[in-house]
Task: structure prediction
Amino acid sequence: MRPRKTRTSTAAVSLAVVCGAVVASAASPLDLYEGPFTSQPREDDLLHAIHTCDHSVTCAGISLASNGTVESHTIYEHSFVGPLATSKTHASDKPYTFHRGRITAGNIVAADVTGLTLREAKEMCTAHDDCVGFTYPLWSLTDLNHLPNVTLFATLEDFEPDAGLDEYRSYVSNDPERTALTVDANLLSYDEKLTKRPYSGCCKKTVVPTMEEVEKADTVMPRISCNISREEFFLKYEVPRKPVMLVGCDEEWPARTEWTYDKLAPRFANESKWRARLGGKSESYSKIKWEVLANAMRENKPFYVFDQLMHPEGKNVELDYVDPAPMRGGNLYAEMNSRGIMWAGPLRWFCIGKFGSGTKSHIDPFSSDAWNSLIKGHKWWIIYPEGVTDRQTFCRGSCSNDEVLTREWYESIGVNAARTEYPNDKYAYHVLQRPGETIYVPDGIVHSVFNFDATIAVTRNYGSAANLDKVWEEACTSGDDRKWKIMYNLVLNKEQRRRVRDSKYYPFHQNCKEIDIKGSKRDKTRKGKNKPKEEMVETLWHPSFDPKIGDSVEARYNGKHNEWYKGRITKIGKKGLYDVKYDDDDTDKGLKRIAIRRYIPLKKGEIVKSKVIAKNGDDLWILSVITKVNNDGTVNVKHFDGEKLESLPAGIFVQRFDWRYQKGS
Result:
């Protein structure tokens, strides 16, 4: 007997189970390639296509062309396979495929089931022998971890596609035995836009859940004491790239009492300018006078300050806090920051904002981990699983405002984050950060932040040794040679240097170049001009160089120190040992060949050590960069603390030292 066809939109149906055999209500397509659930043919590597499909919530399988071979590159993608697989089809082993829209007719197994997570809804459908899929309305402000109302079906006899409204979602079984006679596959379509961005949505909602609802949904993020040691924190959280909330890091900070709106408003000069946004109609930043921001604090107007602590007024704030102990000393970027070489600033941020301010989904810049300590107020964080990109969570332009505000993103996509499946059955989760808590978010994790009330926080981005490969790539491809040279020679330990030498960027002086936004390397200076080959970093060690008496050379002082001084060969002994007279009239005798190298004139931009005379008469050698090579052979230098010196005799007041990246050095 043909099963009764029921439209879920007519009335709520009580929990029930349909017994007996089920027969499909419509004919199946002729074959897999002709169905509306199959993409147009495209060129792709077969293994790459299979891997992508297995990690996509919308892909049910991949097929070669009907006459294709393993070596061919024409493939088809399917949002449904079921019993239609051919000998040239790879059917995904995930139990369900996501479809945007709702099942509107079919035998109902259970209706309006509440209190289920998406994972539990799939488990419930799988546990019932007759279930072939389920539908649920997308949006709800309550119970953020659970689906609003789930209806499970034993047959799929009608399906209403999304039509751009983003109101319903459905999951259809990939089990061919379940779907052979129960699913009218002609009703399911392949949606290329959905395949590319399955987690995006329409951003036009106007209401956010209450703080209590977010607090109720905060069940995943672990909370630990800030008393954890640096070593334990590194091994348990930075190495496995695991977000965590620390409690009590600010217990001895003056910020706990000094950071209030009343105390901050008069603290800074009225004319000082801060990176901020004012009002609630745009999220574009501009430089705004503190007087204007202070008035917004007093008058309860919407504003948001998110500025780096690098100007004089900002440095005032740094007196009120220190880096949390579990992260302290773990910043691979710190050496460069202390020398004034930065990634668009020191990456320390002061954050002040009212209700509705914050940031939409994003990944922090410069391959950096981050910590954020909240002093006042409450923040709603959404943490996405590893592998999700920020672009996948953007609003759909066709059904969203031209400029989507953080509040609109949270009201539409944010509320559904934990009710959405991501690759490999992973899920995002909600976190309510309270005063006195410090959240740690590793690099590569998509996250978002929403301020529930008047908030004050400080945050820092840093380069973690647990993320060495990406941090090194960041330094290597920044376009500033000083960054990778300082990191390699003054920051990394022996094992870390070995690791980066094993990377694709070795030899560094050839491969550490700036990378453009498309990922292709370009051999340009930071000003964008072509850099001639002869201006590239030169290897100073020349095995083929045969020193002669009178040759200008650089020699390693005493044959063992990492100090190279300019001089001339005065004698070559019978055993191949060399005597050298340096430009300051000092001498070295009996130097081995390994301690002698060809002298190459100093160049602008080269990092060296320059000599200054201390008050007690001692020589101090300061790490410096050459800013100019003068016609008389002297050089101008700038110390990394900012001090400038001019007309230094190159052979007396300037020394090179080994950059260990050079082969043979």
